Every structure is written in C-alpha cells, then in structure tokens.
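Problem 12. The chain below contains 141 residues. Write out its predicted structure in token notation.
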Amino acid sequence: MNTIYKVILVMVFLLIGSHLLGISQITNAEANILEPKIIEYKTFPYEIKDRWVCIPKGEKELTVEVIAKNTKEMLFYLTPTGTGTASKKFLIGKTNGKNDVFTIKHKFKKDESILYHLSVDAFNKEGYRVSGILFNISRCG
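Solution.
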C-alpha cells in the first residue's frame, strides 16, 4: 500500500471514525466551561437509607439539601416510579442556593400515596445542565 493511500485512510478515520467513537473537537470556550457537579446530598428529618427515604404516614415535610459546585440554580422534581412515567414528573422546588448549598422543603399530604424518584436539574452560569435521580421516596409505617 503506497503512502498516499495510508494518508487517506488515516484522514478518513480522523474525520469519520472519531465521530463514531463519540470523540469530537472541543473549542477553547467549551473547554473552560465548568459543568455543575453534585458533591453530596442529604435529607431530614428522614434519612436516606440504601437510596430510599421512608416517609411516615400523615402530613409530613421533607427537607432536601444538595451541595454542588459550579452550580447557579437547581430544580427539584418528583417522578412516580414505574415504566413510562417520565411525562408525570413535576417540579417541587427551585433554588439559586447559597454558598454551594441548595435546599428545598416539600410537604407530603396526609393521605398521599408516595412512591417517587427525586431528581434534580443543576445549571451552571452558562446554562449548561446536569440531571439525575438522587434517591427514591416511599410511604412507610
């Protein structure tokens, strides 16, 4: 195989193969953007155990606290567990936080059936978003 064909094959791989592998060029502006990063989260007065929070019967309030870096705003959602429930996700809180701490309080109704995922959308100052489920919530007792 002569040299020109080798060069062409390398160029084809670099142009097409890198996209197939999910590799792309990043501009200097994109490289300097720090994405939101969730460091830690906790709940009270009911603690997270094995990624679940158990809410006793009755009208109860749950406080969720998230520590996140490079984050300007955080949205908190509840989504019913199960298949095909993403469209039933609803916003329960939105905060700009203070000193990298984002806190919301949510009150569960007395007779509410509870079986949810709690998820967040964390946004940095450029509007870049990181999303994810933090834990699950159920009714107990």
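Discussion. The radius of gyration is 22 Å. Students who got a different answer should revisit the alignment rule from Section 12.3.
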